[in-house]
Amino acid sequence: MSYRTTSLPSHLRHQSTSGSLSSSSQSSVLQQRINEKRVELENLKQLRDLSAGLAGQMEQLEEKLGTLSNGTEAVAAVLSNWHNVLRAIHMASAKIPKPKEADGEGAEPEVPLPQTLVRIPIQQAEAAANAQAAEQGE
Description:
It is a single chain. It is built from three helices and no strands. The chain is an all-alpha fold. The chain has a domain at about 20-95. It starts with 9 loop residues before the first helix and ends with a helix. The mean pLDDT is about 80. It comes from Zalaria obscura. This is DASH complex subunit dad2.
């Protein structure tokens, strides 16, 4: 009968021969990994907090951009109406009677100004007319 001897891998042989020495080195390695993971966890918490702040700033930016977009649309609507406003002023100016020129006296002729255009909102005029009719009806 021959006994067969098998050799153990070196990492197993080392553990079996130096039992208490290896357990203390393992615990220090584990403690080091735990400390690394704690630092990593702290960094992740900071990243989470900073990400939440960034998300809040992005939401504020979104609201401001929405307001800016609405303002831009309003400006575009006003600018699109300028052609009509200028045309109405020109038409009103064309209908103004030309003043007769004064005789001589050597004074500089004054350039006539266009008549003032007055805009009266219809809603106010209708409300005033209704109020007047109600007073007369009583």
